[in-house]
## 1
Amino acid sequence: MTLKVENINKTYYRRRRLHKLRSGKEMSSPIKKALDSVSFSLESGIYALMGPNGAGKTTLINIMVGNLKPDTGLVSYKGQDIFKMGAEYRKLIGYMPQHQWMYENMTVMQFLYYIATLKDIKKGPGGKERIEQVLDLVNLTQETNKKIGALSGGMKQRLLIAQAILNDPDILILDEPTAGVDPNERIRIKNLISRISFNKIVVIATHVVPDVEYISKEIILLKEGAMIHKDSQDHLTKMLEGKVFECHVPVDKLHEFEKSHNIVSMVKEKDIVKARIISDYQELDFDVKELVPSLEDVYLYNYRSSIRLD
Amino acid sequence: MNTTIFALFSVSLLAPIFSFDRQYKMERILGATSRGNKYLLKTRFRILLPLQALMYIAMQVIWYSSLSYRYGIKNISGNIQSLPIFKDFPIVIDMRVMLILQLLTGILLVWLFCTFIFSISIKNSDVIQSLLIGTIACVCPFILAFVNFDLAKMFWLGPFLAPSLLFYKFTWPVILNMVVMTSFIVLFAHKAVKDYTSAQV
């Protein structure tokens, strides 16, 4: 069970405005290179696809789902091109989009029946049983006759997960599964994903570090369309050893300190501030203690320029 | 008039179908299912086009029945040229054949018209907008009729809404309009379907 992404490139172009090349040929002007030679391979397990907004996560996910064709490159499952597999590939995948849009006037049950039909799940008792099983798994059994428009954000997210796992997919692709939900719901969804991930390739695109911390086998970091790392959480945090510190900064020097350092968090204690920083070199001017790096540190270290711009 | 009512009914039935999916941004979810995308498009066409044809046949049968009830069926086996409006019709056929011919032509034109409405539905992400565009397309011949009644019968979707016109208004402008309109609908539908199935959502 291997899903391979090989040398994927995708550029978005302006549709209408054309610009003339020196050769006289007219070309659509590129807006953005969304993916730049992205390659990796996935075996069963949970993979986190991380990066700030605009890093190319959703584009990559749409390509992996088969909803978007890359300009160049190949996505293959068990050695076969997914775009050539077509419906056969789509039978094996479950996809949850980033947004919470669904037919608002349908009830939960009607929606799942509709998706079950489109996923070629047998009608009759078998199909109904599967829907009830999935509803139980996502804890929506009490809401079957509720209209989708009347569900809370968390319930909608769980319903989106339910439709994705309805066909018991080999590959489960979740785009921002915890977007816009409260911390309790976030934990519930995280546990649900862990529970359903057995013997599947699960890809979770997110920029929320705690969502994938401890549950993911490997983390894929995307930056400006390029893959910068694909490694386990342990290896990624090990790479940051000797770069995460706690500095005791006097309050009056904090302003200057903030300007020149990547501060992860701060706690004020009397006349000093305990700041957790990420730095390539050890700070000598202040009282410094080396800390064990976390995944959040890895994220901040790799995306510091994006974070400062934000 | 009855075909216009039929066309408006078709618009209300067909125009929301694809726009509804797009209004609720369901394309990505549907596109990721094994029977979504191309299969869903084909299934919708396969169900709705025969349904439209059946509805059209039913409407024509009711229309012919009411005519025969009012005027009786006399000389139905007579030549079509015996009727004043068909006196210049180039092929010698009897009235029954003409009725069948009109019915078949009507079905073909209804399908073309439905394909046009389907394409509008695919292209628009707003149900109301699709309904409005479809309705405007249907009532355009009436607007044209205010300017010139013959123009209304000959141009735009006029002949599509009244297929019998093709037989007793067998003139070059009508034929030219049919060719232009058919080409336009086929190209528009081709573009809409290509956009829908090219996996670019």
## 2
Amino acid sequence: MTGKAQQDARYLAAARTHGAMIERLARGYEADPELRRDLVQEIHAALWRSFAIFEGQCSEKSWVHRIAHNVGVTHMMTGRRRNKLPLVGLDQIAELPDGDDPEHATGERSLSNRLLAAIHRLQPADRQVMLLYLEDLTAAEIGEVTGLSASAVAVRIHRLKALLAEPYSAEEKRA
Amino acid sequence: MNQDPAKQAWQASVEIGAALPIEEVRKGADKLYRGVRVRNALEYAACAAIVAFYAPKVFTLDSIVLRVAAGLSVVGALFIAWQLHRRATADRPGVAGTVPIMQFVRAQLVRQRDALGGMLWWYLLPLAPGMILSWLGTVLERQPDGLASWAGALLALSIMLAIFAGVWWLNQLSSRKLQKHIDEIDALIGGD
């Protein structure tokens, strides 16, 4: 197999495995549907290009997450997002905000909308940790992907767990 | 399957994501750097315009001072073009996978900070000798005799210096903001 063909094959396999994650991650970095489509394409393009030099430097999962988040963060930094609200840290969000359409969202849909609304308010480092946590990466994997120190990851996961437990503790209080 | 309801809800929000057609992906990979290429092309074009404007004046102007000023402007523009070429090396996303996200972001910020922070040396000062000498040559040629014409000449010099100072100050502000972000990342990577 030639280098290019191998690159294509590696990209296709990774995109099939991680395609849904890429779509979710793009939702976390860009609220506007049209810009989000561009962001997804950018991530796929960067991923394809990256497989020209991937030689198992880390696990494929970490590699794909790094590429996708690096493109996502660059997208944020270049100011293409329309939401100009100031970004905050996890410690500044006391409860999950309401999603875009709380009237029509129920159950899982409602929760995912509220998660997304919280993600869109977060600064890059906290946003990365929350997205990776929701993708079910372990603390060690989150550290490997982000480069954050173990204690910085631990603090953020602790805050995240408290934030995610909030809807249930609120329900318990009401009951 | 994960039992955490938040993780479940998040992962169920989008469960399908396909690979894009290879041709589309390849085209997208080229498009990624189009912005950088366009910006560099504009900056090279600006340098070329300065060279094209001043180079003939080196041989055609009567005043020796203005000829030297034109020559210095050409040298300054060529120096800036060389610096742009040296500095215009955008990180390739392929490289992005080899380093963790925060290190990648930090490297990008450091590059931007250094480019902005050092702008005085590689962007402003190379143009200054030619511009100041050009002002001096014009003053010598016109030989202002009244207070009003001296005031006009000094006003022109002041405006030129104010623009230089303003550009430098704005770049320093941006550079300091970037440094703040870099410090925040260092704190996150380092261990708080």
